[in-house]
Amino acid sequence: MENMGWIASIKYLIFDMDGTLVDTEKLYNRFWVEAARHFGYPMEPRHALMLRSLTPTLAEPLMKREVCEDFDFYGVREYRRKIMEVYVDEHGLTPKPYMEESLERLHSAGFRIALATATPEWRARKYLERLGVLGFFDAIATADMVAHGKPAPDIYLLAMEKLGCMPREALAVEDSPTGIKSAYASGAYTAMIPDLDQPDEETGHMCNLILGTLRDLADIVICRKVS
User: Fold this and answer.
1) Do 11 and 48 have their domain in common?
2) Does residue 19 sit in the same domain as residue 32?
3) Cβ burial 138-150 (10 Å sphere, 16+ → b, else e)
């Protein structure tokens, strides 16, 4: 991580959702595997990990290569969405630690906040509303709004356009290597709060901050703004 004087220039926070704000990555992993095996494909949890935040145009050939040549990515994805939504509707969602507290503090400190997620807009709004934090967001950018999903920078560029900010005024917050690559390519500063795995060497070099929790993020950003 570099000298942190740059944090004083941050006026905007752009958050990924799954694995960053909401503890859903473990659900995606579980239901990708369940959905694939429903169709008879030999998918394993390690394959599901490869799909985190990854655009379908890259995910489909990856699964055909890693799982089996006849893997019906879109069919499996549709079934995975169905069974996961049934589960969420029945059991609810778990926020990441300090999620609501941190968003409230950042909002009260005057930061403008956006979402940049690979999740479709309807689901993102549903999840954030269900957790009671949708009102903290000034803008929402999702994969169904752009030509190229993560790891391309399109979602972050759209979020910045909606916020009306320049890249070096924004801090992007992610949990996965794919998301960090997307944020880094957009020109924003980057913070990683690892969820299912730690950053590898490549990802680590793209991170301005690597933190343990959302509370750590709020502490650092708000402290630097005040000072």
Assistant:
1) no
2) no
3) bbbbbbeebeebb
Evaluate the omega torsion of the peptide bond into residue 167 and state whether it is cis, within 30 degrees of 0. Answer: no
- Residue 176's alpha-carbon distances to 74, 117, 185, 212, in angstroms, are 22, 12, 14, 13
Q: Which of 16, 18, 175, 195 is catalytic?
A: 16
User: Does residue 153 share a domain with residue 65?
Assistant: no
> Is the pLDDT at 227 greater than 80, yes or no?
no
Q: What rounded mean pLDDT belongs to the chain?
A: 94
Give the chain's radius of gyration (CA, Å): 17
**Cα–Cα nearest to 45, from 61, 32, 54:** 32
pLDDT in tens, 37-59: 999 999 999 999 999 888 899 99
| Full residue range of the structural domain in which residue 191 is found | 4-24+95-226
Does 175 qualify as catalytic in the annotation? no
Block residue for tokens 């690559």 = 181
Supply the pLDDT for residue 201. 86
1 pLDDT above the threshold of 50: no
Classify 65 as helix, strand or coil: helix
- pLDDT, mean of residues 86-95: 95
Number of domains making up the chain: 2
Q: How far, in Å, CA of 183 to CA of 24, rounded?
A: 20
> Look-up: residue for tokens 């400190």?
109
Q: How do residues 170-181 score in pLDDT, each as one tens digit?
A: 999 999 999 999
Q: Same structural domain for residues 18 and 124?
A: yes
